[in-house]
Amino acid sequence: MTESNAGADAKQNAPKQTAPKQADRPQNAARPANKADDSTVLSDSTVLSDTTRLSDTTVLSDATQLSSKTHVTPKKAESEHKAGKPALPQRPKPATKKVAIPSKSKAQSQPKQAPATTAAPETAAKPSRQPKNQPRPKSVSHATANAAVLPTPDADVAHFDQVFNTIVSNISQVIIGKETTIRQCVAALVAGGHVLLEDNPGTGKTQLARGLANSIETPFKRIQFTPDLLPSDVVGVTFYDQKSGEFTFRQGPIFAATVLADEINRASPKTQSALLEVMEEQKVTVDGVTYPVPQPFIVIATQNPIEQLGTYKLPEAQLDRFLIKTSLGDPGHEASLKILHEANVRDRADTVEAVASADDVLRLREIAQTVRADEAIEEYVVRLVEATRHNDQVMVGASMRGALALIRLARVWAAADGRGYVVPDDVKDLATVVLAHRIILTAEATFAGQTAKSVIESILDDVVAPTIGA
């Protein structure tokens, strides 16, 4: 075949093969001959010869349907093509979509099909697109991610939750409508700390302390602090026994597992200092001899904030030894009605019985020590304590004892919630009752009406808490 004949065949075949039917083209629209519109459909029998070229302006729309069968050039035609005109360089195929040319032999053997029939399988094969405004489904939810990061509580934590809530429910029969304060006091008992209850007269401070003592099968003693109380009246005294001819130590009321220090601010600072050693080291030294106190040991002290006549301010060293300082406040409307309905009960603390033993409390203390506190939680506690030291309204910030108290109490608080790990909300719930009584405000802040509680709350707002699972 000569070069002129090949060019003539190409001109004769190209319009016949590529030109769309007149019926498919809209009559009212004039388009270039080399540009296919959206309705152009190439059937399976359509064959593009090897010499057919598409110009740069030729556009195939998304509706153009081509068969997925690859065109196979016959060996005879391929040899003739090699002997004749050399092949022209082809344009690189688009990276987004590959177009396959149907085989001539395959196309001739199959009957001619309607354009709609050919487009149906191709349309079904295309994946459906989601609307742009529809959010993509997340592979892993935040709750699933957090559950995978945070440890799972074991059976010991479940036992802790059960025993802890049993004690709280028992004390709630004595003090009605104050579950949060009761939980704080029980948590302090489990953490091995002490409680300072400061509230107005008649709010139930003594009843709460006695209700807590009666709920645990441990020795209980009450010390009524008065201005003439001596240190020996608290810790004990060594006296000479004439019958035996020896000196004998008589233990004071401090040798009990639960000690109620009623109106502690009415005693002199000398007597108050007798509690420093036992509250910190859980032991008493008299005449050079050290005696341990029963476990679990807790001091529950009460004081009246509105009556200052005949009282002594607690020294800062003793205030720092109290794990928490909390208050009860007035009962709500429903709680007040329930108390009035039971007005015949003179002593509500005597109506409850022990629901846990000393060994149970010690076991809860061991479980609380296994609760996990992440390094981010520990750093959060340290930043809170450091913020109290650098605050312009605070003259003396919280000590390191306060940071230890906060992290220990947070572990107990988490286990009481049925969790084996501490979350930032545990620290936030306890920061005020743990740190407020450990700071001293400046005179300017006091004159401006600021309180230690409000300063701690502002620090909680300023210090950024860690994010779970981050």
From TrEMBL:
This is AAA domain-containing protein. PANTHER family: METHANOL DEHYDROGENASE REGULATOR (PTHR42759:SF5), MOXR FAMILY PROTEIN (PTHR42759). Residues 387-458 form the ChlI/MoxR AAA lid domain. The lineage of its organism: Bacteria, Bacillati, Actinomycetota, Actinomycetes, Bifidobacteriales. Gene3D superfamilies: Magnesium chelatase subunit I, C-Terminal domain, P-loop containing nucleotide triphosphate hydrolases. Residues 40-71 have a biased composition (Polar residues). Residues 1-143 are annotated as: Disordered. InterPro entries: ATPase_AAA-3, CbbQ/NirQ/NorQ/GpvN, ChlI/MoxR_AAA_lid, P-loop_NTPase. Residues 194-324 form the ATPase AAA-3 domain. It comes from Bifidobacterium saimiriisciurei. Residues 102-128 have a biased composition (Low complexity).
